[in-house]
Amino acid sequence: MTTTGPARTTGAVAPVVAPMLELRGVRAAYDSIDVLHGIDLVVPAGQVIALLGPNGAGKTTTLKVASGLHPAAAGDVFIAGRRVNGARADELACRGLCLVPEGRGVFPNLTVRENLWVMTYAGRSRSEIEEAAYARFPVLAERRHQHAGTLSGGEQQMLAMARGLATDPALLILDELSMGLAPLVVEQLYGLVADVAAEGVSILVVEQFARVVLGVASRAAVMVAGHIVHEGLPAEIEATLSESYLGAGETEH
Amino acid sequence: METFLVYTFIGLTTAAIYAVIASGLVLTYTTTGVFNFAHGAIGMLAAFAYWQMHEAWHWPTLVAVLVDLLVLGPLLGLFLERVIMRGLGGTSEATKLVVSISLLVAMIGLANVLWNPDVGRTVYPFFNGRKIRLGPTALSYHQLITIIVAILVALGLRLLLTRSRLGVTMRAVVDDPALTQLNGAHPTRVAQFSWAIGCSLAALGGVLVVSSTVLNASGLALLIVNAYAAAIFGRLRSLPLTFVGAIILGLADGYLRGYLPQNDYLTALPLAAPAILLFIVLLAMPNRRLRTHVRTREYFPAPTVRGAVLFCIVVLLGGLMMATTMSTIDLPTYSQLFAIGIIALSLVPLVGFAGQISLCQLSFAGIGAVCMAHVGINGNPLGFVVAILVCGVVGALVALPALRLQGIYLALATAAFAVFLDQWVFHLPDFDVGPIHLGSTTVVPHIMHFSTFSLGSVNVSTVKLFGYNVITPTAQMVLATVLFVICFAIVCFIRRSRFGRRLLAMRDSEAACATFGLDLLGTRLSVFAMSAAMAGLGGALYGTQLTAVTPDRFNFVAGLPIFMMVVVGGAGFASAGLFAGVSLNALLPFMTTVFNSFGKYQLILTGGVGIGLGREPSGAAPQIATGFIALREDLPVIVSMLCLMVVTWAGRLINLYPNWPMLIALFVIFVGAVAIASRRRLVARGIARAAVTGAAAADVEEVPLEWVGVTVPWTPELLAKTEQVLGLGSVTYEAVGAATIRRGGAS
Ligand SMILES: Nc1ncnc2c1ncn2[C@@H]1O[C@H](COP(=O)(O)OP(=O)(O)O)[C@@H](O)[C@H]1O
Ligand SMILES: [Mg+2]
Asked: Is the CB of A70 under 6 A from ligand 1?
């Protein structure tokens, strides 16, 4: 599914010809421990890119750097052609970048409605946000007064996505959407991702194993130990996947 | 019935004030993670400001109140957030605590400078004298307003937190700060807002409470501490439970005042009641989970034997110099530095090694002084022994219920114990346990006669050791120095012993310790008992120096600077004990004799030093130490320095010159020695560098291994040396080939 729609005009993000997100030679460290050793990654406008890799490879760290939560030790981050090194996460969020973090990206002690209200910093009113979210996920409307912590895992992911999408972001970043969810729910969620992609949103999806992501991506990259080791079309990546994970050539299965 | 109603109203009014203050505290704690000990002090400042505006400048009540609430409170809040609290992330609880305690101390100092404490001030209630009749009794307008305000605050906070975007975001921050930021909320904005509201609520509480108490800085700042019990009721999280807690506390306070029989034993009890309730509430907290690894920025290496011995020699020498050169008028003042130093030293194993917090060390010292007063009559040295034993037992008794507590809760529990002692127990007249008679038969025999400060002050006689009465100031100084050095050596020994390593392991991760079978309970109990015993010894010594002791020497507030200075000095280093003693009992009195008005600014300065700690969480001692590393390593220079110093001292002893030139000369010698040592070190390194092959070897010899990776980067030579020291044998690292990972295959 390669939706290469035209670049969209959203909020502060100008119409772009440049890639929506580009990392060039990004390095990052926690205290003195280097985690990323020069990451190059491009998310062209309107495309879905998958980033795969084993646990601890540095995928989440890459996303943290891209979204402004963690500083890059070296290298540059461009969003819609503009260099955004050093920008705060909330600034980027208000300008159309939406990251749904791994685990559940919801506030468990807030109700569904209040969870949506938190998203009003990007200049949308509460009712607009609520309407947009309920239109996309009607199940949330029924549960609007329930605490988010009491929702099922799939519903929590829906809420997290709904909240992000309600502001019409230009770039959506999803970290391990499938974590801890039943395969059926995962498929459902990826159906939604495909729908969103069809609307022209640029998407970066991160997964450990789920090959289902390769079905929606137009290109994919594999990351191991802080390096991008493969980059290519989903079909090519699928072939090299087991090799990348086990660090060996042919492995007996 | 009528009295009942009257005391109910009084109780509810108190409850309303506690509720207002506590809710502000809970708000800032939940949204920023900093428990603001100075919350009460903010209320205190607001109360003084209200007096200034309303009573001194005759501004209308409403204007004065509004300026307090809408200008002063929020401004103080923004100031705290901006200058002090930002940058405390990743520091230990002790550091956070010290910063906010320092703030408390500095604010009390500030109030005393701005408003002379010797002048009496009164603030009248709102609508003074107006009442509304309610059946058999009456409710004053002020009481009514207070209660209504509390209800409005409750409703207002509820609306804010559930209806407004900012309020919802504040709750979101509690759940997940990073995620809130990903949603576009400015994290600092949220923190600033909650500090502003929190401080505004503290100010409101201060304005409401001030007409019913005396306008006195430390009294007011601590009266408001009682409100903390209410906040703990809500586990520092739930606002409704906080209000329930406030009502319970307020009513208990009202009824105790109304119905408690009036005698010497019970009059002071209501003052201690909130502390007792606080202690009970803390004990009723649900079992916490064992702490796993905490990431902190603090790092405390063990002292080297050589460093410790050197330190002891220098301290002994310093003590002797002071003993022989100071006037008998100055000596008693300065010898206290070692008594306070011992009390401070007692915090090192507890706070620095074990990561526990105690705010009641000075109270243990008070118990020690009392033991000395009653047992050490006529200089009986048994007084020291009893002080040590009694304090050890009391310390263990306090620790036993408090063992489940950690961090801020442990700090509050020990603070509650300190307040309980200084508000009530230290003010009890003598009493007996038993005998109890039933009719003419004695059921329980006379067990013991208890006596604390006998309603005032008790005399402590100087101690007689081996028939020699330590009565002259000179002898006292020598005794104090020797006792301090012994305690210092004990603490250093503990740090290097098995027990010390166990404490450190516990500090780093209790959960990990529990998994490999370390007896957490026993370890914590023994470190508490040991440290209380040492504080008791310090207190006993302090008592003999003061000759007469009063309870206010040992009250809660007086103990705070000691705790602060130990943490500032670097709680993990035994030298922090000396740092605390010197800065509190030598530097401050010295400055006061030099600049007369300095005494006024003492508290502000002490507080300021503590506030500065946030920038250097490992404390000052390591920084001072790194400055002197060159000197410490350079034996020829040390020996020459000490010789020169002794010569200078000898010159003073034969009255060649007075004290001033000696001090200056000592200082010049010391600075010179440091300079020469660093120069020699540089030269030595230069030579080592020049010899190409020798370079690495010289460095390897020089660098203490525990600092590798912290002060110098890892090199292959250092790695080799580490392996050799740890007895690992040389490990050769090979690239892990593909063949080794094959499942089931031979590796
Ligand atoms: N907050 C942190 N502090 C220190 N190290 C971290 C932190 N977060 C992650 N790491 C380390 O960084 C590496 C990469 O982590 P991460 O980016 O979460 O990997 P992934 O998302 O691919 O599983 C891991 O080795 C992990 O231990
Ligand atoms: Mg991850």
From this structure: no
Give the residue extent of every domain in chain B.
Answer: 2-259, 305-627, 705-743
Atom 20 (ligand 1): residue with closest C-alpha? A56
**Does the beta carbon of B517 lie under 8 angstroms from any beta carbon of chain A?**
no
Query: Looking at the CA of A178, which ligand is closest?
Result: 2
For the segment A148-159, what is each residue's pLDDT rounded down to a tens digit? Answer: 889 888 889 889
Interface pTM (ipTM) of the complex? Answer: 0.84
Q: How far is A17 from chain B (nearest CA, A)?
A: 25
How many domains would you assign to chain A?
A: 2
> Which amino acid residue places its CA nearest to atom 9 of ligand 1?
A61
- Cβ–Cβ contact A209 with B under 8 A: no
Q: Does domain B2-259 have CATH number 1.10.3470?
A: yes
Q: Return phi, psi of residue A218, to 5°.
A: -95, -30
Instruction: For chain A, give the DSSP string.
Output: ----PPPPPBTTBPP-SS-SEEEEEEEEEETTEEEEEEEEEEE-TT-EEEEE--TTSSHHHHHHHHHTSS--SEEEEEETTEE-TT--HHHHHHTTEEEE-SS--S-TTSBHHHHHHGGGGGS--HHHHHHHHHHH-HHHHHTTTSBGGGS-HHHHHHHHHHHHHTT--SEEEEE-TTTT--HHHHHHHHHHHHHHHHTT-EEEEEESS-THHHHH-SEEEEEETTEEEEEE-HHHHHHHHHHHHHTSSS---
- For B50, other C-beta atoms within 10 Å of its C-beta total 26
Could B743 and A107 be called an inter-chain contact, meaning their C-beta atoms sit closer than 8 Å?
A: no
A77 with A187, same domain?
yes
Q: CATH number of the domain that A211 lies in?
A: 3.40.50.300
Report the pLDDT averaged over residues A242-247.
58
> Taking all residues of chain B, what is their mean pLDDT, rounded to a whole number?
82
What is the domain range of residue A116? 107-168
Q: Which residues contact B325 (CB under 8 A, 6 or more apart)?
A: B649, B652, B653, B659, B662
Q: Are residues A163 and A176 in the same domain?
A: no
**Given this model, what pLDDT does residue B586 score?**
82
Would an 8 Å CB–CB cutoff place B654 in contact with chain A?
no
- Domain match, A207 and A234 both: yes
* Choice between B586 and B615, residue whose per-residue pLDDT is larger: B586
Angle at B169 (CA atoms; ends B166, B175), nearest 5 degrees: 155
Domain assignment present for residue A101? The answer is: no
**Is A177 found in the same domain as A90?**
yes
Residue B101 has pLDDT above 80, yes or no: yes
Interface list for A 114-133 with B (CB within 8 A) = 114-115, 117-122, 126
Same domain, A61 and A74: yes
Tell whether B171 lies on the interface with A, counting CB pairs under 8 A. yes
pLDDT digits (tens, 9 = 90+) for A115-130: 988 877 777 788 888 8
